[in-house]
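Possible regression after last week's pipeline update?

I re-ran a chain I had predicted before the update to compare outputs. Posting the input and the new output here so someone can diff against the archived version. Not blocking, just want to make sure nothing changed silently.
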Amino acid sequence: MDELKNGAKKMAGEYPWWLGRIWHGMTLGVWWSMLTRHGFRVAPNRVWLAVSVTLVSLGNSLLAVYSGWRCRARLRNVEPHPAPLILMGHPRSGTTLLHELIVTDSRWGYADTYQCFVPSHWLRSRAVVVGWLGRLLPAERPEDGMKVGLHLPQEDEFALMNLGAPSTYEGLAFPRDTPTPWQAIDLEKEDAVLRKRWQDTFVEFLRGLAAVDPRPPVLKSPFHMTRIGLILERFPGARFVHIRRNPYQAIPSMIGLTRKLYETQGFQPLPDDMLGEALQFYREIFEVFDRDQSKLEPGRIHELSYEDLIADPAGEMGRLYAALGLEGFDPGSPALRRRLEEMKSFRPVGRRTPPVEDLDSMDACFGERARRWGYVRPRGAG
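New output (post-update):
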């Protein structure tokens, strides 16, 4: 079981940033709109990145026009599946692990990495690009042995952002700027135009998925915690799963990943107070989540912990199915057993103990919630 726990720590990691730039999936119109919102404030040492995104976005725009021309009739009569399963949780809380485990059940569909990174034209470009690009990718990430593949489940937040929907991830691109309404965590407090833009983009992306896969999709994004109401308006049959993790571990992990993303993806220097920004994000995302859970009837949402999931994956999956009224979970399915076996080979990364002053700030933010969940404050580094 220790091997399984160690493997799960890496299974819950995000798709490696060194395989490409998040913004390279945008069309020129979406990219230009983002630049305009931020006054073209690109740091001098990141101009090369902005130029590369601009050049790639031109190609995406041409492919998007071609894809729209060829697929418009095909999509006209397609309706998204009415009952998606929405996975959500604070970043670094195990949503990717949960996603990987659930889709071992072949009755579920999902958005894969290629669909999420180039959502404007994947319907037409996939057959050519995936085969060519797939040969350039390693079978595993060298640092931890995690599987790499354009066919693996991915976070649909990337697709929505690259299609021009409002997204908090825009802050990764321009971390020094004051957040715009476009990247607001709580869209229900923003202009109705922004809310409708997000909903329409979400529906259109799911329409494309349904055109090639009629199965109910399993979707995951940390920001779906703040969009329960927006999703229910268009998909009243949706079910939700919230996975939580010890926040004393999730916050440092999030800061570490965010720092790497800023360094490789951002168009501006790193923010000065990474911890302060992470804690502010934690407060805001849970404030909206706590408010909107009441919109869900019993049997429409299930909560589990990351720690319980890695201790007893099959058992937690069975409880999830039962809580949501889903049938047919097979704890002995070959696909699930293979996935659990693969998890054993992943190599964990060492964890740094935060200093006492950081833990004091964390306590002020989420200490009461952590204790309610059963987590204990660790001893700080001296």
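Follow-up from reviewer: compared with the archived run. The chain is about 50% helix and 5% strand. Marking as no regression found.
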